[in-house]
Amino acid sequence: MEENLESRTTATADSGSDTGSSSSTLAYDKHFVCSAPGLLTLIEVVFGFLVWMFMGGTEYVQVAAMSWVMCGSVVCWVLTVCQLLVCLISVHTRFPQLPWNTLVLCFNSIAAALYTIAALVDAASITQAIRGRHSYNSWMASMICAFLVAICYASNAYLSFRSWKNQR
Predict the structure, then answer these.
(1) What is the Cα 104 distance to its own chain's centre?
(2) What is the SS3 assignment for the chain?
């Protein structure tokens, strides 16, 4: 209990009147980052960023399939950053009516499938780049990162499934 109080951040908003004030407590969950789902989420953020960073430094729009890889990786990255922030500041505990475990399970499962497809499309499209050139090297690096991210999302989906199953 004492450790939990140390990790809490309290934000208080005053409505400006003497009769009423509202208070909101957001807790920073420092243990989430050290947990398996937290570590996997951090790895997803880092390697997901690398996927679209490597893609963005090339002329990916010349290959339609690569544009799909870029779009999918950016969308998944933004949603993963949002999920990380929600878990870090324990916003999900403020809304107990939301089925958080189900939402995380669905997101991680869909992201694992999308990233697997993106990595396969990336691998198939590399042949359109000339070996040794910047695009080839960047697309190869993005493909490797995409496969790593897909593995992380699949692992996180498995952990989310176990959590969801234990919840029932």
Answers:
(1) 10
(2) CHHHHHCEEEEEEECCCCCCEEEEEEECCCCCCCCHHHHHHHHHHHHHHHHHHHHHCCCHHHCHHHHHHHHHHHHHHHHHHHHHHHHHCCHHHHCCCCCHHHHHHHHHHHHHHHHHHHHHHHHHHHHHCCCCCHHHHHHHHHHHHHHHHHHHHHHHHHHHHHHHHHHC
Write out pLDDT tens, residues 82-106.
999 988 888 877 888 888 889 999 9
- Mean of all residue pLDDT scores within the chain: 83
User: Treating both helix axes as pointing N-terminal to C-terminal, what angle do 36-56 and 134-167 enclose, rounded to 10 degrees?
Assistant: 150
Angle at 29 between CA 99 and CA 152, to 5 degrees: 65
Give the pair of three-digit tokens for residue 156.
């996180």
More confident residue, 22 or 70: 70
Q: For residues 167 and 52, what is the distance between their CA atoms, to the nearest angstrom?
A: 35
Reported as a single tens digit per residue, the pLDDT across 105-132 is: 999 999 999 999 999 999 998 888 777 6
Amino acid at residue number 15: S
Q: The whole model's pTM is what?
A: 0.80
Q: Output the six-digit token pair for 83.
A: 């999920």
- CB–CB of 11/27 below 8 Å? no
